[in-house]
Specification:
The complex is a heterodimer of chains A (207) and B (207). Chain A has 3 helices and 13 strands; from the N terminus they run αββββαβββββββαββ. Chain B has 7 helices and 7 strands, in the order H-E-E-H-E-H-E-H-E-H-E-H-E-H. Chain B has a 7-stranded mixed beta sheet with strand order 1-7-6-2-5-3-4, sandwiched between helices. Classes of the chains: A alpha+beta (207), B alpha/beta (207).
């Protein structure tokens, strides 16, 4: 994955970052800071008017997390769309066995076809095509979530594995936003999530 | 035979490309079953584990890797078997327990996926339950240095013709014995202490 998948928003000002194909470099569209991969996986931060410095991915993701929470808190209209991305949706239709010397070793999902549309995160998760809303899921229907290099994969209750191949956006952007949206949804019911995989698990919060 | 050949080629490549240091190799028993638990910060971790572990290793691998026919055929020949990540996969546990019964070594990455920032992620509940059910020695292995070479958000320079060979340390820890936990209630009771033991040992080996 390129660096702009990690730093999908600027950790300094929360503006969007570029998704250019410059190897291991991205820049903020707001404050114009440049982030690039340096030696030993340190990230070189070059603000426009301040001296450059080296920092770790951990520090930058921590500040991104804080900014994301602030953005969620600021939302006044609960129906407002939080995130919208062009995506191709495919559903795992069956499971294929994997053998070793005629011995069954396990299964793998078979994902075929795909429908183009927009994945929208608001007070629920929707997949919208040319003809309108094609799929609608409440957050409690999402049983597990995981990302790969270019897709987010969600396991929906009774409907199986859905894969959304993201055309432009970072899968991590979706993972972070969706995790926060789901955790806030459960929080309203006095529940907290303590595990996301293989199944989203919640427990009651004791005051 | 094929597995030995691939290990041989892998060993040549990694020793030319990286400076590999192996510590605590004497903790690996020459015979008998054991589970190797490894931290996961980079794409190359499973390859290093398979190539440099003194015993042939079978590792739980994400099922999506087996969607490609080549991996479906060759993966099991080099000790990879699939585990479904989006729901509890009893078949993967059955296969792992069967391998252990035959006296083989099984490798697991208890975090379930690569870490974004090089830090140890939460250990999955399912893995802890599996460790308790297996009743075999658990050997922690910390892989240090691979995050600097190929973090999740970066790319590995496969040849690195100009630069110095980076150091990677594979550090095996003392075997941990959790004892027999045949009933579900016994496993649930021992869950927290087991998880913290695994976490602490991995933290100790990676820092």
């Amino acid at each position: 994955m390129p660096i702009h998948d990690l730093l999908y928003r600027c950790p300094l000002c929360d503006a969007e970052t570029t998704t250019t194909f410059i190897s291991n470099q991205t820049s903020c569209l707001g404050c114009k800071t440049i982030f690039s991969n340096s030696i030993d996986s340190q990230i070189l931060v070059q603000p426009q008017r301040e001296p450059a410095y080296l920092t770790s991915a951990h520090m930058l993701t921590l500040s991104m997390e804080k900014l994301l929470k602030t953005r969620f808190d600021r939302l006044s209209n609960p129906d407002q769309s939080l995130l919208r991305s062009e995506a191709i949706m495919a559903i795992a239709s069956e499971y294929q066995p994997v053998y070793s010397k005629k011995e069954l070793m396990g299964y793998t999902e078979v994902i075929r076809g795909g429908t183009a549309g927009h994945l929208i995160l608001s007070k629920s998760l929707d997949f919208v095509g040319e003809k309108g809303v094609l799929h609608h899921w409440n957050f409690d229907q999402i049983k597990s979530l995981q990302i790969s290099s270019d897709a987010i994969q969600l396991y929906m209750q009774e409907k199986g594995l859905h894969q959304f191949k993201l055309i432009e956006n970072s899968p991590k952007l979706w993972e972070d936003n969706l995790k926060l949206a789901i955790s806030r949804y459960y929080l309203k019911q006095n529940l907290e999530i303590f595990s996301y995989q293989p199944v989203i698990k919640t427990r009651r919060i004791d005051f | 035979m094929f597995y030995h050949f691939v290990r041989f080629l892998g060993r040549i490549y990694f020793q030319m490309r990286l400076s590999i240091q192996i510590e605590g190799e004497h903790f690996i028993p020459p015979k008998g079953p054991f589970i190797l638990v490894l931290n996961h910060v980079s794409d190359i971790d499973p390859f290093l584990a398979h190539v440099f572990c003194p015993r042939l290793l079978s590792t739980m691998t994400k099922s999506s890797a087996f969607r490609f026919k080549v991996v479906r055929i060759l993966g099991p020949l080099v000790g990879a078997f699939p585990t479904l990540r989006f729901r509890v996969d009893p078949q993967a546990v059955r296969v792992a327990l069967r391998l252990l019964l035959r006296g083989k070594a099984v490798g697991v990455f208890p975090e379930g996926e690569r870490s974004w920032d090089g830090k140890l992620r939460d250990i999955k509940m399912g893995t802890v339950k599996f460790l308790l059910k297996a009743n075999v020695p658990v050997i922690p292995c910390g892989i240090v240095g691979t995050y600097n070479i190929a973090p999740r958000w970066g790319k590995m320079d496969l040849l690195n013709l100009k630069g110095k060979r980076e150091t990677v340390i594979l550090r095996y820890g003392e075997p941990i014995f959790f004892g027999s936990h045949n009933s579900r209630s016994a496993r649930e009771k021992a869950f927290l202490t087991t998880r913290s033991k695994v976490e602490n040992s991995l933290l100790g080996l990676t820092t």
